Structures are given as C-alpha cells and as structure tokens.
Amino acid sequence: MLIPSIRKIHNVNSSKVIGMSYSFKMAGLIPWESTLERDWLLHLESNLAIREIYGQPETFDYCFQGKWHRYTPDFKACWYDPHRLPTLYEVKPHDVASSDLFRQQSDCIRQALAMYGYEYVVKDEYEIRRQPVLNNLNFLKHYADMFVSRQDRDRIHYAFDDGKTFCLQWLLEQFGWHKTDLAKLYYLMWRGWLVYDEHRVVSRSLVVWPAKGAW
Fold it and tell me: InterPro entries from the entry (predicted)?
C-alpha cells in the first residue's frame, strides 16, 4: 500500500490552499499550508530521531518593535532524545527568510520560545528542496509501510560484515531476489537502517551500508 495521496481543500476563511499529508509516525494526517511546508514535512517524517510531528501546534505571544504579536509555528517535532527540547519549525521562501526584517522578527520569536522551553528553527527552500535529496525522499516514501521479515532483515545485515558496502543490485543477486524485492531494500533505506550518499540518485547502482545502532 502506498502513502495516501495528498488531499487539498480550500480554507473558507482565506485564499490559502491547505493540504493534508499522511504521517506514519502519527498514524494520521498532518496539515500544511504551502507546498514548501509539505516538502519539509517529508524531511521530518523521514528523520529517525523524531518521535512525533504536529502541524500548527500552538500559538505564542512575543514582543517585536515594542508591540505584542501572536505566532503559530508551522510544525513541532518531538525527539526520542529526552534531553532535547521540542523543535518548532518555521518554513519560508528564501527571499523572505533572508530579509533583515524577518531575521529581526525571528530573533524575538526565538528568545520568546526559549523561555517556553522550545528550540526555534527556520528552514528555507534552498535547504528543503535540495536535490536529489528531496526526490529520493519522495520516491522512498512509497515504501514506508512495506513489510520486511526479521529473517530478511538479518540476512541483509549479516551480508555487511567487516564494514563492507554493496550496491542494491548486488544485494538482489546475492539473495536471489527479483525486481519486486527491491521494495524491501527501499523500505530499509526509508527507515534509515540502510544508509546511502544523499547526493546520489536512488537506483540499483546505489551503494548502501548499514546504519550504526539501527539494527
């Protein structure tokens, strides 16, 4: 089964187009208000260190240029590391994120959120839409609910003794698997159990290796 298609609806109170993306971490839909937010959500969903993701989670008060304002972050990420503060993300186009006014405003927001016990991070399109990273994630997400047996996981893991690395095609041939069995390897890559060079496009020739501590 593939991740459900993104469903778009119109907000009756504004001209914005809002979308909902399915999250396997949350076993439900998470809202976004731009395709840039949607793309950043994909990065969050694929981050193994993140336990939970929330869209537009809370609203906070902060003071900027002598006036009080209200701020609602785009996303909140809670981490498996109990010592790490929850992170609130703001997603902006590069020309907005790099403007002096926005940076000044962000500094005020960051200081206010620190007092509430949050980390505040701004992400722009240059980081979010790096290629082939984003295309790889969009491809691998379709295998997020693939089932791989414990026996198959162990066979794959044991093939990488002594720090070896192999391409996906070699692993298929090693186990006598068919083309359809690539889905198992793609699932392990999505889960972060198999690591690869993010600057390379996912293909059968892609070299992978096991992530430390993931098995």
Answer: TnsA_N
| Integer Cα distance of 59 and 71 in angstroms | 5
CB 205 within 8 A of CB 168: yes
Distance CA 98, CA 22 (A): 30
119: left (phi > 0), else alpha (psi -120 to 50), else beta? beta
pLDDT in tens, 129-163: 999 999 999 999 999 999 999 999 999 989 998 78
Provide the greatest CA pair distance for the chain.
68
Task: Give the residue among 128, 151, 144, 155 at the shortest CA–CA distance from 190.
Answer: 144
Q: Calculate Rg over the CA atoms of the chain.
A: 20
Q: How many helices and strands, by DSSP H and E, does the chain display? A: 8, 12
| 50 and 23 Cβ atoms separated by less than 8 Å | no
Distance CA 23, CA 45 (A): 7
Structural domains of the chain, ranges and CATH numbers in brackets: 7-128 (3.40.1350.10), 146-210 (1.10.10)
What pairing do the DSSP bridges indicate for beta strands 119-124 and 87-92? parallel
Cα separation of 90 and 110, whole Å? 11
Q: Identify the CA nearest to 146 among candidates 115, 182, 171.
A: 182
Nearest CA among 189, 181, 186 for reference residue 209: 189
Q: Give dist(CA 78, CA 101) in Å, integer.
A: 29
Q: Quick check: pTM over 0.90?
A: no
